[in-house]
Amino acid sequence: MATEIHAVRRETAAPATGRPATPDLLAFAALLLVLIAAPYVLYPVFVMKVLCFALFACAFNLLIGFAGLLSFGHAAFFGGAAYITAHTVKVWGLPPELGILLGTAFSATLGLAFGALAIRRQGIYFAMITLALSQMVFFMALQLKFTGGEDGIQAVPRGHLFGVIDLSNSLSMYYFVLAVFLFGFVVIWRTVHSPFGQVLKAIRENEPRAISLGYRTDHYKLMAFVLSATLAGLAGGTKAIVFQLATLTDVQWQMSGAVVLMTLLGGIGTLFGPVVGAALVVTLENYLAASNLPVPVVIGVIFVACVLLFRRGIVGEIAARFGGKRS
Amino acid sequence: MIARLLAGAALAALAVGSAQAQQGKVSGDVVKIGVLNDRSGLYADLGGEGSVVAVRMAVEEVGGKILGKSIEVVAADHQNKPDIGSNLSREWIDRDGVDVIVDVPNSGVALAVQEVTREKKKIFLMQGPATSRLTGDACSPTGFHWAYDTRALAVGTGQAIVKEGGKSWFFLTADYAFGHQLETDTAAQVKKAGGAVVGAVRAPLNTADFSSFLLQAQSSGAQVIGLANAGGDTITSIKQASEFGLTQSGQQKLAGLLIFLSDVHALGLQVAQDLVLTTGFYWDMDDEKRAWSEKYKAKTGKMPTMVQAGSYSSVKHYLKAIEAAGTDDGATVSAKMKEMSVNDMFAKNGKILPNGRMVHDMYLARVKKPSESKGPWDYYEIIRTIPGDEAFATLAESGCKLPG
Amino acid sequence: MSTIFGIPPQALFGQLLLGLINGSFYALLSLGLAVIFGMLNVINFAHGALYMLGAFVAWLLLTMAGIGYWWALLLAPLVVGAFGVLLEKTLLSRLYKLDHLYGLLLTFGLALIVEGVFRHFYGVSGQPYPIPDLLRGGQNLGFMFLPNYRGWVVVASLVVCLATWYAIERTKLGAYLRAATENPVLVQAFGINVPLMITATYGFGVALAGLAGVLAAPIYQVSPLMGSNLIIVVFAVVVIGGMGSILGAVLTGYGLGLLEGLTKVFYPEASNIVVFVIMAVVLLIKPAGLFGRER
C-alpha cells in the first residue's frame, strides 16, 4: 500500500551519501554546547532525565524511523535493563559502569528473543506482538522476587565510576550521563549512515525489492531490533543509576506509548527529533504535575494533534520548511 | 531512648545559642509545605486534593504565618510513579525551597521520597503509604509515619477478629510486596491470638475478576477471609464476594485489612455491610472530630479519610514544633516534634518514637447495615479501641537503625 | 471423593465456568476489534476506553436520569456507537490514505483522552452499579454457586456473537461488507457507498464494546481504568485468533477464558501471563494466528 509515512520519511531522512551532512554536524555541535552548559543553568537531575529519555527515544527511532518497524513494547528493554542494573549494583555491589553494562546486555538478549518472534509479522501485527511480549515482562517484574514488586528496587547507590569518580556529586553524574548519551547518539548516527543503515532504509521503502536484490531482510531487521533494544537498555540502566531506583513505571505499556509520543512529536526518522521530543514531553510532565490539568488528557491531545496535523514532528517540519534539499 | 535524650540535649544547646537569633531562622523567609500525592489515580480519593484542603485548614488555623513568616502550600501529582515522586521532591527541595513533604500514598513512591528527604535532611510527614518498612529498615531521622501502617492494621483487624471468635483464616493476598507483608504481619497476629491460617491465595495486582480466588476461599471453609490488598483490588473483591453469596450465608466473614472511608463510600453499604476494618480516624467519634470534619466537608463535599485527617494533624504538629524550636531547620524541628506529644482532634496524647512512628490509638470498626445508617457518611460503628502501644511496633521491634 | 489431577472436581468445574464468563467479555471485545480491523485495517486502541465509556453511560443514565439496566443495555451501546461514528467521521477518516500505524497511534491518543477525562471527574476507585433485580440471587449448581447475573452474561454474549457472525457471513449486507474488505474500489464501482459502510462498521464495532461495558458494569466497579486493564489481553486474544477473523476472535475469546480458568486452578500466579505465553507459542507455529490467513 502506497503510504504517506514513507513519503515523509523519504523527505526527512538523512541523505544516502553515507556521510553526515554539514547541517547535521552544525546542529550536533550546537546540541553539544547546550548540553555541556545545561547543568549550570538548569536543574541537573532534570536534564539527566531528559538525556536518558532522549537516548531511549533515539533508540526507538532507529527502529521506526530507519527500519519502518513500530514497536509498542520498548518499555520491556528500558525497564528490564533498569531492573538488572539496579539489582546488580545494589545487591551484588557491582560498580555502576558494570551494572549498566549488564543491564544493557540483558536488554540485548531480550531484544534478540522478542525480535526473533516479532519480525515474523509486519506493521500493526508487529506492534501488537511487541506490546503483548512487553506485557509479559511487566507481569514478570510484578511477580519475581528480586524486582520488589510494586515497591520496585529503591535506594540504589550511585557508587564510584571506575572506582574513582564519585557519582553522588550531581555534576560528575551529569557528565557521565552526557557521555553515555553521546555514545549512544553517535552509534545511532554512524549506524544510520553505514551500509547497514542504507539496507535498512531500502527494506523500509520496499521490502520485496530488497529481498530480490539478495538481502536477507529478516537478518537486517533483527539486527536493527537488537541494536535498538540494546540502546534502550543502555538508557534504562543509566536512568536506574541517576534516580537510584527501578520500578514498574519503566516496564509499563504506558512507557512504550510515551516513547512513541516523544519520537512522533520530535519527528520520526530525523536524527534530532527524538531528542527534542523527549525534552518537550519530560518538561511537560514535570510542569503539568504541579498544575491542575490532568496529565494523561494533555498528553492524549498532543498525540492526536501530532497524528492529525503534523506528522513530520517538530524537527521534521522545521527541516522541511527551511532545510530545503537536505531534509 | 538514648537517641531521644541526645536529640533533646542537642536541641537545648541550640535553643540557648540561638535565642537572640530567633528571626531569620526560617529558610527562604517562607515555610513551604509540599503536598505530594496521587491526584488522578488509584489513591486520588483517599488523599488527593482532600489532603491539600486538610493541610490548608491547618495553616489557616495558625493564621497563615509562623515566626512572623508566611506559610505557603504547594501540591503536585506523583502519578504513582516513584521516579516522578523522587524527581519532584528533589526539585521542590533544591529549587523551590520546600521545607516539608506531606502525604505521599503508595509505598513505592514513599520509599523513594524517604531517600530524598533523608539525604536533604527535610521533614517528611507520611499519611498515605502503608508499609511499616518506612519506620523499619527504611526509616529516616526526619521521616514521620502518621495515620497508620501495615503492622497496626494487622494487629487491629487480625487480633480483634480472632478475639471475636474468627479462629480460622484464609488470605486473599495481592501478589506484590505490600500484600505479602500485610499477609505475613496479619498471619503472625492471628497465630499469636490463638487462631489458625488454613490457606492463602495470591491474586495478581489489579485483577478484574476475583471470583475464582473467592471460590477457593469459599471451599477452604475458613471462618474469616482476610483481604490483604488495597484500593481497587479491595473494592472489587468485596463486591464480588457479595455477589457470590460468601457473606450472606453467615458462615464466612470478610476482613478488609486496608479499607478507607472513601472505599466504603464507593462500595455502598449494601455491599460493604458488616465488614470489619481498622482505621486511625473516624469522623463521627467525638465532638472535636465531628466539628473539624464538618468544616472539611463544607469545603470538599466529602467526609475525610484517616489520610486526610492525618495530613491536617501532622502539619499542625509540625507548625507547633517550628514555633517551639524557633527555626524551620529539618533536623532541629524533627527533634522537637519527637519531644512534644500530639494533641489535636486526630490524636490524644500521641507520642512519636525516635524512628518517626506516631503512636496513637487505632479503632476497630464494623461497617453498618443500610438499615442502621442514619444518613450519608454514617458508615462505621466503632467496636473497639486499640491502644497505640498495642497497635504499633516498639522501636526495638521495628528494626530501624538510626545513626547516633 | 475422587479428584482430577489432585483437584476436587467442584473447584475445577467452578473455575472452568468462571473462565467461560471471562471468555464472554474477551469474545465480545475481540469481536468488535476484529470487525473494525477487517473493514478499516485499524487496530482500535480506544476499544478499552469505549468499553469503559459504555459502563459509564449506563451508570450516568442510572444516577442522573434514573434509567435502569435494561434500557441502558440498549441506550449505552447506541451512545457509544454514535460517539464512535463521530470519531470516525471527524478524525479517523483523515488517516485512511496513510500508513495504518497512524490509525493505531490516533486511537491510542483518543484512549488517553477519554480515560483521562473520566479519571479527572470521577477518580478511580469506581462507582457501584447494582445488579438488576430480575437477575439477583443465584443457582446452586452443586459444585458452585452461580450468580444469575453471570449466567446471563454468558447467554447474552453468546447470542450477540452468533448474531454478528450470522449477519456478516450469511446476509446480503454482510456480503457487501466482506466484499468491501477485499476490494473497496470495486465495490464502490458497483454503486455501494463504501465510506458510509466503513463509518457504520466502526460505529457497530465500538457499540459492541459499549455493550460489553454495560454487561460488565454490575460485576466490576464502573471505573475509568476498567478498560485499560482488559484491552491488552484482548489484543493478545485477537493476535492469537488471527486478526480480522470474526469466528476466530469469538472462539479464541471463549477458549482463552477457559484456559485462564484452568491456570487459576493449577498455578494462579501465572494466570496473568498465560495468554501471552500462548501468544508467543502460536506465533512461532502459525504466525498468522490460529484462524487467520497471511495477507
From TrEMBL, chain C:
One of its GO terms (biological process) is amino acid transport. One of its GO terms (cellular component) is plasma membrane. InterPro entries: ABC_transp_permease, BCAA_transport_permease. Its main location: membrane. It comes from the Bacteria. It is found in: Cell membrane. The chain crosses the membrane at residues 12-35, 42-62, 68-88, 100-122, 149-168, 200-220, 232-254, 266-285. Keywords: Amino-acid transport, Cell membrane, Membrane, Transmembrane, Transmembrane helix, Transport. GO terms for molecular function: transmembrane transporter activity. The keyword Transcription does not apply. Belongs to the binding-protein-dependent transport system permease family. LivHM subfamily. This is Branched-chain amino acid ABC transporter permease. It comes from Azospirillum brasilense. The lineage of its organism: Bacteria, Pseudomonadati, Pseudomonadota, Alphaproteobacteria, Rhodospirillales.
